[in-house]
Write a structure and sequence with these properties.
Strand order of the largest sheet: 1-2-3-5-4
Family: Belongs to the RuvA family.
Helix content: 40-55%
Radius of gyration: 19 Å
Keywords: Cytoplasm, DNA damage, DNA recombination, DNA repair, DNA-binding
Structural class: alpha+beta
Pfam family, one: RuvA_C
InterPro entries: DNA_helicase_Holl-junc_RuvA_I, Hlx-hairpin-Hlx_DNA-bd_motif, NA-bd_OB-fold, RuvA, RuvA_2-like, RuvA_C, RuvA_C_sf
Protein name: Holliday junction branch migration complex subunit RuvA
Distance between the termini: 32 Å
């Protein structure tokens, strides 16, 4: 529903901020990682994860798209709610958490307050393949600059769930045979080969 809010930081604490956007003050929960990135700023852009429960509508804000992306992965795991996901991102950097999941380091994830051995194993089991498919740049924001046709096709296919290295090989063979294809044509040809 919301992608990001850009406004004046009226109040900052390690757990939440009040961000004024268009005359409205939004109470947004944040992680310590985000707090460390925005604590010296007067204005900020926070990427939002809007969580709706029976008894509450809560906004979680992140300084980077990558951190929000990882947060959304974490809360998709059974037994990890938004507060636990935020605790995980406050205990370690998003890069450390992603590395621990990809490398199957149960002990590192289990050190986080509120995460027991079974939950740590479940996090790795459910997210390891997803994060491996996305590669090392899963925490990097999607480029806003104009992409070339093959780059745009690559981004789209990775978002559809295909492994980046596999897609790159297929796209290389397609681009070699014909260079004047549209993004849609390249994607259609790639889907037949993947």
């Amino acid at each position: 529903m919301y992608d990001y809010f850009n406004g004046k930081l009226v109040f900052k604490a390690p757990t939440h901020v009040i961000l004024e956007v268009g005359g409205i003050g939004y109470h947004i929960h944040i992680s310590l990682t985000t707090y460390s990135l925005i604590k010296d700023q007067e204005n900020s852009k926070l990427f939002i994860s809007f969580q709706v429960r029976e008894d509450s509508h809560t906004l979680y804000g992140f300084a980077t798209e990558g951190e929000r992306h990882l947060f959304n992965h974490l809360i998709s795991v059974s037994g990890i709610g938004p507060n636990t996901g935020r605790m995980m991102l406050s205990s370690s950097t998003p890069e450390e958490i992603q590395s621990a999941i990809v490398n199957g380091q149960v002990a590192m994830i289990q050190k986080i307050k509120g995460i027991g051995p079974k939950t740590a194993q479940r996090v790795i089991l459910e997210l390891q393949d997803k994060l491996k498919k996305q590669g090392d740049d899963a925490l990097l924001p999607l480029p806003i600059a104009k992409q070339s046709v093959p780059e745009e096709a690559l981004t789209a296919l990775v978002m559809l769930g295909f492994a980046k290295n596999q897609v790159e090989k297929v796209l290389a063979s397609i681009v070699q045979t014909s260079e004047s294809l549209s993004v849609e044509q390249i994607i259609k040809l790639a889907l037949k080969k993947l």
